[in-house]
Fold:
Amino acid sequence: MRGRYFMLISGILAVYFSVILIGIHLHKLPNFQLGPRSPRQSGMWHRVTIGTISDSKLRDSVRRGELLFDETPTAGAKYTHAKLACASCHVEGGIQPFALPVVGIPKLFPRYSQRAGHNITLKDRIEECFVRSENGTPLDYNSPEMKAIVDYIEWLSAPHLDSQPFVGRGLINLPDLKPDPLHGAEIYAAQCAGCHGFNGEGNPYLIPPLWGDGSFNDGAGMYSIRKMAAFVQHNMPQNRMGILTPQEAYDVSAFIHNQPRPKFNRAYRGF
Ligand code: HEC
Ligand code: HEC
Structure:
């Protein structure tokens, strides 16, 4: 009798621990990391929850801003033509270091813009990303949507007593290299097509497109091979960040650069 109980209990325990071990193992597999992740390499900086904002009007606006930022093609459909969210490039809702984070950005404005040839405000900068990166139309500066996005970015940037300074502004610095787009095509097929598709079409709204109708237009910052290479080298392939050498990042970016994409609407060149 005793022996049987012992067998039964050890059997149950064995199954129990196997389930836990399999769970831990699966969690570490890349495919299980597509959901929301905590910021990679963010040190001590962390985001506070929106629920802690005491002013209910501001809280609602920040929530709306977050939604517009993370789900732009649906939440901001009126102004967005691309199937790209702000967060497709400003990764993790704009808090991912060296993936164009927007934490701390408000204090940098107004600032001189080479593109515009004069000083621009944060709203001007957001508008630039709408008409170029989102291949969309300008937002009314006084609209609740514009206010919501600004409120969201300002809230992310507010200092918190228990939080360390944010590190990782912009993109990593890469040297100027001469790209080889033919080699880039091979890298694309091996490392990128599995997610972004063989025709760069992505998988809306899970994986953003890289070229074609649903992508950013040729007036966007990401249209620069140098900027895309710096983004890609540090942040892609999304499930195995950092495996490409700087040269490979340039090559694959040059290949993507050569594919068809929407033209920037010159009527919006004020932005
Ligand atoms: C296709 C990628 C892409 C998308 C989509 C995109 N952006 Fe950007 N954004 C960029 C790049 C690249 C820059 C930096 C350009 C440069 O080097 O000045 C930038 C810069 C910015 C900046 C200034 C940040 C800084 O570091 O100076 C803000 C603010 C911003 N974007 C907001 C937005 C918002 C809001 C949206 C969504 C409506 C959006 N962006 C969508 C690529 C993108
Ligand atoms: C595991 C899936 C996956 C793989 C593999 C992958 N990406 Fe991405 N990529 C994403 C996701 C998801 C995003 C949106 C940002 C995020 O959440 O990290 C993204 C964003 C991007 C962006 C900015 C947004 C846009 O659409 O313009 C570029 C550029 C990009 N990837 C290029 C590449 C390149 C080049 C490779 C191959 C070296 C690659 N990606 C491999 C999933 C992937």
Summary: The pocket of heme C (ligand 1) is lined by residues 72, 84, 86, 88-90, 100, 102, 105, 125-126, 129-130, 133-134, 149, 170, 216, 220-222, 227 (CB under 6 Å).
